[in-house]
């Protein structure tokens, strides 16, 4: 299976809560530009999953519009402080699909490291609107390979 994991676009710094932070104008532009520039690479995506945080939902909506996808769902295990093991396990329900998951730092770094390296010793950072494509026979620790970032 192919798994695409994306960090949300740039978000405002101040809001009533971290969960309610919205994308900035620049953040919306980052996501729109990314989506349009790699549209052909995302042609297999058939479902978009996102965290419950506003900025992730807004990013997912922009991606869905660009990809012309209607299948967009919120997942509870993909917030910034979620356990990356639970996030990975939540993908077992979409093994027959090609998901794009919109999430946050540091979770995205830990998920990539666990899937591809089998540990979280040295997770790499992600820029806003950056995407990693990971291939895996099954969404489980250490089973990811061919990680490509764009």
From TrEMBL:
Pfam family for this entry, one: His_Phos_1
GO cellular component terms given for this protein: cytoplasm
Domain of life: Bacteria
GO molecular-function terms, A-Z: protein histidine phosphatase activity
SUPFAM superfamilies xref list: Phosphoglycerate mutase-like
Keywords associated with the record: Hydrolase
Stored NCBIfam families: sixA
PANTHER family referenced in this protein's UniProt entry, alphabetically: PHOSPHOGLYCERATE MUTASE-RELATED, SERINE_THREONINE-PROTEIN PHOSPHATASE PGAM5, MITOCHONDRIAL
Protein name, per record: Phosphohistidine phosphatase SixA
Gene source species: Neptuniibacter caesariensis
């Amino acid at each position: 299976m192919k798994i695409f994991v994306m960090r949300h676009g740039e978000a405002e710094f101040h809001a009533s809560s971290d969960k309610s932070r919205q994308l900035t104008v620049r953040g919306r532009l980052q996501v729109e530009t990314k989506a349009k520039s790699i549209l052909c690479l995302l042609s297999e995506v058939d479902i978009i999953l996102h965290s419950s945080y506003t900025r992730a939902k807004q990013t997912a909506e922009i991606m869905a519009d660009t990809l012309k996808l209607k299948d967009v769902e919120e997942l509870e295990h993909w917030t910034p402080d979620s356990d990356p093991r639970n996030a990975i396990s939540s993908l077992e329900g979409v093994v027959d699909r090609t998901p794009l998951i919109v999430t946050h730092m540091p979770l995205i770094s830990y998920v990539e490291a666990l899937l591809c390296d089998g540990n979280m010793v040295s997770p790499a950072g992600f820029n806003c609107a950056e995407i990693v494509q990971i291939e895996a026979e099954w969404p489980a620790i250490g089973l990811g390979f061919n990680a490509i970032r764009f």
